[in-house]
Structures are given as structure tokens and as C-alpha cells.
Amino acid sequence: MQQDILINWSPQETRVAIVEHGAVQELHIERTLERGLVGNVYLGKVSRVLPGMQSAFIDIGLERAAFLHVADVWHRQPDGEPPAFARKTEPQIPIEKQVFEGQSLMVQVIKDPIGTKGARLS
Q1: Are 57 and 48 in contact (CB under 8 A)?
Q2: CATH assignment, 41-121
Q3: Domain segments of the chain: what residues?
Q4: What is the pTM of this model?
Q5: How far apart are CA 42 and CA 107, in angstroms?
């Protein structure tokens, strides 16, 4: 499969397109005045754990608490290997056994906040 990444930059915005066989598959636009949070790393504090949703809300200092789903939690590996996501085929450890209210966590934004929803974290 032929795949190209096209980047166009100006002082006002950066545009990135992923093109497969001549057709645009994804288009990302980042405006200088509206920089996103994706990729930012924060030391957050767990404000609420929701076992029914298998998620937690983390205070990272923004207007709204950010969202962390159990599938986006990294797991420590044995023998000093770098952390990794659990595979979809592996059973998930329940969120309430991984984090607790008041706990400090190092988190990274994987999706910007939009509308009434806070940022999504890993």
C-alpha cells in the first residue's frame, strides 16, 4: 500500500495530510493560535474512579478533569522492559485495582478536550 504524508506550513497554521493511492485518508490542521494539548505530559491527581465505566477522571490543571480509560493505562513489564499497553486479547485489570482517588499519576494527553468533554489521557 502506497502511503504519503504531505505537510504544508505557514506562520498561521500547519496542515498534514495522509494520502493513500492519491486519496486523502486523514487531514490534520493545527492553528498557531489554537494549539492543542495532544502529546503534553502532566503530573495529574486522580479525582474520581468509576468502576462501572472502567475509567477515572484525572485533574491535570485544566478547566475540566481529563478522562483515563482502563484500555489506555500502560502496564509495567517484568525484567525492566519498557511499559506497554495491554493487548486487546489480554484480560484487563479493573481500573479500581490500578488507581485510587488522590493518587498522583504521570499522564499524556492523547485527545484534546472538545465541547463539554475533557481531554483523553493515556
Answers
A1: yes
A2: 2.40.50.140
A3: 3-34, 41-121
A4: 0.66
A5: 5
pLDDT tens-digit readout, 85-103 = 555 556 678 889 889 999 9
CA–CA separation, 118 vs 122, rounded Å? Answer: 13
Radius of gyration over every alpha carbon of the chain, rounded to an integer in angstroms: 18
Kindly indicate the confidence band of residue 60, based on its pLDDT and cuts at 50, 70 and 90: very high
Q: Do the beta carbons of residue 118 and residue 67 sit within 8 Å?
A: yes
Q: 41-50 and 104-111: which strand pairing?
A: antiparallel
Dmax (CA) for the chain in angstroms is 50
In sequence order, what are the beta bridge partners of 23?
20
Residue partners of 89: CB distance under 8 A and separation at least 6: none
